[in-house]
Specification:
The protein is built from 11 helices and 12 strands. The chain has 282 residues and is of the alpha/beta class. The strands form 2 sheets. Strands 2-1-3-5-6-4 form a 6-stranded mixed beta sheet, sandwiched between helices. The structure holds NADP nicotinamide-adenine-dinucleotide phosphate.
Length: 282
């Protein structure tokens, strides 16, 4: 065991109950590393986030995860971005290198890696079309990941201006921008993959569903729901009833956390232990 003590944590607002402390604390123990993972709420339009980043710069904190509403607002406060954060225009991990604050995005490789694991038959060369629901921070990582893997994209969001901003920032000039309703979703036509990047269906409102009840899911599409609690959302149940391949975001959650921990500690993270923590928590 090294003597180094890792001071890690999560910032966002509000933070409420988060799984991240349990996930990272269990992993640190198995890695035989000393440390703790705290919650650091930072209210928007205050100096909270800047003060917290200063603590990372000074070495008081070794690394932070970033969540809503700071994944994009943190960008101008950082010294440099890793390629994934630049591609997504969003940051979910912060670390220090040579007294500089660096932003990274592990949602992007975390999503891509789990997508390949869940739906290996989708990893074929050629033009494939994906429909992404939502245009927030996670949708940015998903769209950047799919674009890098050669997918053609349709975005369906309740605010067309938010989707337009994503399309511009990520330079997705050929992506379609559709309303998140039955007319918009059917206008996208035949798709091989649908990704839910909205919180619709997440606990404590599992009755919600981003897919309208009146609209059948496209034949043959794979459905990936970023939500991991509950394990089977209404959307995933609907997909299973229609005989479609479907996956929750549990694998992505573990992979993005494992990649962050590896970034902070420089050691391989125990993914199986982290999966177990998630399964015990739900
Ligand atoms: P976010 O930045 O707040 O974006 C959420 C998106 O969904 C926005 O486009 C938002 O539109 C839209 N939305 C919210 N409520 C809606 C509603 N009632 N009807 C229609 N659209 C709605 O959040 P995020 O960070 O992207 O997270 C999105 C989901 O992904 C969450 O469930 C989160 O838990 C999950 N997630 C999972 C992982 C994982 O590892 N599995 C990683 C990241 C995120 P407005 O801006 O108009 O509200």
């Amino acid at each position: 065991m090294t003597d180094k003590v890792f001071h890690l944590g999560l910032t966002g607002f509000p933070l409420g109950h988060s799984l991240s402390p349990a996930l990272h604390t269990a992993a640190l123990q198995v890695m035989r590393l000393k440390g703790e993972y705290g919650l650091y709420p930072a209210a928007p339009e205050t100096a909270d986030l800047q003060c917290l980043l200063e603590r990372v710069r000074q070495g008081e904190l070794d690394g932070l995860n970033v969540t809503i509403p700071h994944k994009q607002t943190v960008l101008p406060l950082l010294d440099a971005l890793e390629p994934a954060a630049r591609a997504a225009g969003a940051v979910n991990v912060i670390f220090r290198r040579d007294h500089l604050l660096i932003g990274d995005n592990t949602d992007l490789p975390g999503f891509l890696s789990d997508l390949q694991q869940q739906f290996p038959h989708l990893a074929v060369p050629g033009q494939r079309k994906a429909l992404v629901l939502g245009a927030g921070g996670a949708a940015r990582a998903v769209c950047a990941a799919l674009h890098s893997a050669g997918w053609q994209l349709c975005l369906a969001a309740r605010r067309p201006d938010q989707a337009a901003g994503l399309i511009t920032d990520l330079r997705l000039s050929s992506a379609e921008n559709l309303p998140l309703d039955a007319a918009g979703l059917s206008a996208c036509g035949s798709v091989a993959l649908i990704v839910n990047a909205t919180p619709l269906g997440m606990a404590p409102n599992p009755q919600n569903n981003p897919w309208p009840a009146s609209l059948p899911l496209p034949v043959g599409a794979c459905i990936y729901d970023l939500i991991y609690n509950p394990p089977a959302t209404r959307l995933l149940q609907q997909a299973q009833q229609a005989g479609l391949a479907a996956s929750s975001g549990a694998g992505m959650l573990v992979e993005q956390a494992a990649l962050a921990l590896e970034r902070w500690t420089g050691r391989p993270a125990p993914r199986q232990v982290m999966k177990q923590v998630l399964n015990n928590w739900r």
